[in-house]
Amino acid sequence: MYESGLLVLAELGLSLYPQFIKLVNINLESQVVIRFITYAIIGVGGCIISSTSINSGFLDYSIMEYIVLGLVNIFHVIASYSTFQIFSSGTSYTLFYTQPIFNLLGRMLLYNERIPIVKFIYIIIALAGVHILTSNQSNNTFLESKSHQPHQSNQLKSNSSESNLDILSSISSTSSTSSISSTSSTSSIFSTSSISDYDYYVTIGLFSGLSAAITESIMYLLVKGKYNPSTFQNLTRFYLFGGIISIGIIAYSYSTSNNNIEQFNNQSNQSNQSNQSNQSNQSNKVIEENKIENSFFDLFSKQRLDISMSWQQLISAVAFNGIIGFGGYYLLYYLIPKTGTVLFNSLIFLGIIFSYMWGYLLSKESIIPENILGSSLIIIAIFMINS
């Protein structure tokens, strides 16, 4: 019975992730890097402390397996965080739990498993739930603010009287300008102006949510039948490569930030010798070149990290990922072999309910009939697929 209690506790904590991504004042790129480094360090440390030897642990998988799993997981985390930022907690978390659909299709394609016709009916029901869930976002204050705005691509609105201090801040800090949940307009790589920001972000959110489910399924299929008795090792194989890459990204970001500051100083000197008009144009140019957008497709840019975040922000992000995040996933992986399939698949859907609860309590996200209907259809369909 205690296994059920631990599983509920894990889902209660992990369902906080959508709210954490929304509310913490750290940009997406930095949150991804912090998560991978935190998980990798705890995972490796746990393997060492639990006496998982090199031969029985890390070398159970080839270097290529670590790289492939790491790359897929990087894409998975980015996609998850993107949909968390755009949709309400309950909507994004429900999309995430469409993963069993892709597990089913993957097993059919890769392992030639015969799938009963009735399960394809459940897939159609789940997809109908996805459509209902995302078709009405009237309770989403971020998307509603975009509903009557034409989507503007690669345009930057800047006050011509912006001070040199603001210019430096825009170069070295991205947290306040790149948060997708802020009220400022976010540009994209698309040049289409015929669609609204509302339609654009709904599309990005839906694509990100389903991509998160698909990549979760890909990781499941890649490690199917390769369960390791060490729970730390089971988690480390997904995060070790991403943790190493993240450390390299931090080193690169710090080195380029020094170049940006030097560039700023040179341009400031030139601005001081010019008139106010020229100074304003140069300021806008510096901001535009260094602006970091935070939508799914704008992740890869010249300077990814918020290197000016405070120690308090860093500690809170590390603590959340280390205690609630890693702790929650540790419990899930630990309980997989100890819990019956039906019970496990039933209890994990509590995460959807908890995510709606956290959204209401922490961000006052209302729950509309479409949320209830869409989520219910998906939960019922996925439960029948898993049964």
Keywords:
387 residues; mainly alpha; 70% helix; globular
How would you sum up this structure, described in words?
- There is one protein chain.
- The protein is 70% helix and 0% strand.
- By secondary structure, the chain is mostly helical.
- The chain has one domain.
- Helix 7 runs antiparallel to helix 17.
**If you average the pLDDT, what whole number results?**
75
Question: Domains counted in the coordinates: how many?
Answer: 1
Oligomeric state as shown: single chain
Total E-strand runs: 0
Kindly state the percentage of residues in helix.
over 70%
Task: Give the structure's gist in a few sentences.
The protein has 387 residues and is an all-alpha fold. The chain has 17 helices and no strands.
Topology diagram in text:
Blueprint: H1 2-14, H2 17-23, H3 28-49, H4 63-86, H5 89-96, H6 99-111, H7 117-135, H8 141-144, H9 164-172, H10 175-178, H11 197-223, H12 231-272, H13 276-290, H14 311-335, H15 341-347, H16 350-363, H17 369-386
Helix pairs in contact: 1-14, 1-16, 3-4, 3-12, 3-14, 4-5, 4-11, 4-12, 5-11, 5-16, 6-11, 7-17, 9-12, 9-13, 12-13, 12-14
